[in-house]
Task: structure prediction
Amino acid sequence: MLFNTPIFVFVYLPVVWLVYLLAVRLPWSQAGIAWLAVASLFFYGYWNPAFVPLLLMSIAFNYAIGRLLATRGDGEVGATRDAPAGGGARQAILIAGIAVDLGLLAYYKYANFLAGSVAAVTGTPAPVFDIVLPLGISFYTFTQIAYIVDAYRSGRAERSPIAYVLFVTFFPHLVAGPVLHHAEMMPQFLRRLRTALTFPIFVEGLAFFVCGLAKKVLIADCVAPAANRAFTLVETQQLGFTDSWFGALAYTVQIYFDFSGYSDMAIGLALMLGIRLPLNFDSPYRCRSIIDFWRCWHMTLSRFLRDYLYIPMGGSRHGPARRQFNLMMTMLLGGLWHGASWNFVVWGGLHGLYLQINHAWRHVVETSPALRGMGAAWRVPLGALAWLLTFVAVVVAWVFFRAESFHGAWHLLQGMFAGHATVSAGIYDPRTAAYVGLGLAIAVFARNSQQVIGALAARAARGSAVAQRAATASTGTAAPSTGQPAPVMAAGLAATAVAPSAALGGGIVTGVLLGLMLLLTFISAAW
Result:
């Protein structure tokens, strides 16, 4: 079940939300999270029920590992990140837990890849394993590895099995992220969810969901056929300059609006339930360096790679040479995490190389007064050049990420930078070109989702505050408070408390408009 399908939007989501409204009002404090856990397992099993037992076994195993690692009464004896409680036994439990998690992931995701790679090196026939990749196994595996590592470091683990099940399976993030951290989610699951469900927060979530749905349906899905055709043809023939660049740019637009659209929908769905997920994208195609790109692209994965790979390997603490090695290894493993193909490894390696060059250049600039002065004097043209170099580098790496083989990626790059073919493959068409141009313009120049929604919320709060002051002045008494927490935008904007009538009226109008946008999105997609 996908977020952009009618059965999800018009059947699954309303049922889940309405029952959730009732569940959080029951005397049992965990009724709400229990219902969300059941609904999330149904969401996961809708695609293939056979993998639900595998997911539950993984959850039970990691929950037990976390409890075993909390050997000092869940932090009764102080344990810090640098000096965790316990000794060799706890370390052995941690290693065993990570090994089982990675072994499960390696079997389902990398068995055929590893067998084929060994066969290519040894020259022997490769066995073919009839393995179906479980949905979301990379996300829930990484989420749980982070959980048990933190349990080892702190000596604390989650007590509520229901809350832990929901943490792993929460349906907004399960398929495509964001990668969640238990420290930011558990307090939300265990608080009084009824008080977190407010109408302004629901409208904020609906706005995020509609923005994400529009990204996915109106842009990503419209440019996907051109990208698919380019990367299919390039496996058997050489494309020309125009077709090659058009295919590469179409995929550059597709992957951004597809992935950021799903992230927006996930954030919106969670907000509609009174739960906040971390932001995952912050206009990465505007960035003027690869370092900044990775601070804005798939931010929760970048955080995971930094906290659980780069820093444990030593980070930048052991000199420039060790930092460059750690960067490269982190990006290679990050590339392999995305898929079982050497193309993903090349993609990760390219970004590792980009980061090494970027860090080296920053060091040169920081130690050269002349270069710093030139950068200040020519800030605008040099900034434009830095953006162009960064964007082209990202597009080149996307070619390896999307291509079905290294041979196909090399063919497309030859077409982009040499343009050997003289006959058009018919990939370019004006209608798709308009979508590609619109997507690039939005990604590079427009405000992103959280900025747009944050600005709207701030404007609504200011308007409501004016109305409240006017009501106070006319009556000579203070306007009553709603008694509900004001909406805090994902961009970090905090709206002030507003009068009930103004908040309700503005929320209803916004909700109706967003509902109409939702219907128009589906009608446009069908057309």
